[in-house]
């Protein structure tokens, strides 16, 4: 058992196996963006932002399921040694299951719902049962036993939803995800058995910090893949080349805003925190918002490439401007995690994007995309200007 655990004195950098695992998520996130674009291009949906947001809610369910699989896998490789064959088997098996879930995304709310739900359950229950079997004489065995009970409980609405009509399926899968997320948040409490009181962030904050910024890179890479592929699906004309350029600039600015200082010192902030578990959960939430914002921006970029010079529908404006706004919201939470404060350009950027949205409806999508780039550029420039000539800021997490 002891040789399966990641040693505290060993390097905390993610391994090539974990980077290999992330390759599946390039494909998975591409399928999520494809579903978002479908949400925004259905006739009755595209004309009303509120309707498109309801459609996005279904896609969000699928994203949250994939997000939870990825997060749990990051926890596994933060506590166990990825160079050990049993751990490599678990990661590769999870990778294959994630691939099946990604394949099932397009019809997960219809004909492939059973494949999506059963694969999710098989990963969560099977992986946890595996660790219950191989871990001996360590608290992690008890933790996995508690988690197994919660995953068994959530399996019921997951599998029942796969056979239910769409509306009922959405409700059942929402309940299932709530069980999974709430269970982890509370430490998987079970009457008579107690609960887990140790967060993985408390023992592997540096490793998890790097895993999350690698996921941000994967999401940004998906944006480049999607925009490049979208350009090739039609004639290469001046307005579509401009749309590709704006998409690339958006991606570069999102990268710059993320990694400007706070993105480089998350591990240090977690290590310096009096409550690394609480701060780690905030960091997870911040990354969920940021990755969701990146995916919405990617969908917005594809919409611009579809019809760069036409009339931007309300839902399209919501994607093109809402993606960066959601990203800035997540980045604000992330900055609070690192420095216990939020710089004013981020909330101002969100307000400017929201204020622009109503007047952008009906304008060419290229103009809407250019406005989003201008706001992100303003945030990036303000970061550089504020820090010019000053020493690099050290982590100072909230107490």
UniProtKB/TrEMBL annotation:
Entries under Pfam families matching the protein: LtrA
Keywords: Membrane, Transmembrane, Transmembrane helix
Parts of the chain that traverse the membrane: 89-109, 115-135, 147-164, 241-259, 285-306, 313-330, 350-381
Organism superkingdom: Bacteria
Coiled coil residues, start to end: none
InterPro entries xref list: Low_temperature_requirement_A
Protein's name according to its UniProt entry: Low temperature requirement protein LtrA
Organism, as annotated: Micromonospora taraxaci
